[in-house]
Amino acid sequence: MNRRTAREKAFQVLFSLDNERFDPKEAIELSLGEQQPSEFLTTLIYGVVENKEAIDQKISDHLENWSIKRLAIVEKTLIRIATYEIFYEEETPHGVAINEAIELAHIYGDDKSGKFINGVLSKMI
Question: What keywords tag this UniProt record (predicted)?
């Protein structure tokens, strides 16, 4: 599984965790079926879950005229993943984390999602 696919699967799992309150392991199994998760995928999912409070605080610190509670789940989930990568994954260049979040926003978000995500994440670096 390449990193782009892992990010997309991580988004799907984390999105479902926000909506349904699954256990991360159960959500991964439901998402992947028989396929084994890559190390990068599990690192992203568990990294976001375990650091969610700190990640959400970093996001909140960079929102203008918004609260994290007002963010749509798609945007919030993508920003959480990218924030995790920016602050906790030293191997991922910041620009890559931002670009990948924007690309996923084009697939799962609305017309303005990518621009919004870019604005929030750009303020973090």
Answer: RNA-binding, Transcription, Transcription antitermination, Transcription regulation
Helix (H) or strand (E) holding 99: helix 94-108
Q: What is the pTM of this model?
A: 0.93
Distances (CA, A) of 112 to 13, 41, 68, 88, 119: 23, 27, 17, 27, 11
Q: How far is CA 101 from the centre of its chain?
A: 7
Q: Tokens in use for 9?
A: 């699967």
List, run by run, the mean pLDDT of 10-residue segments along the chain (125 residues).
93 88 80 87 95 96 90 95 96 95 96 94 92
Write the CA distances from 118 to 19, 23, 39, 61, 100, integer angstroms: 24, 30, 26, 15, 10
4 closest CA partner among 119, 121, 104: 104
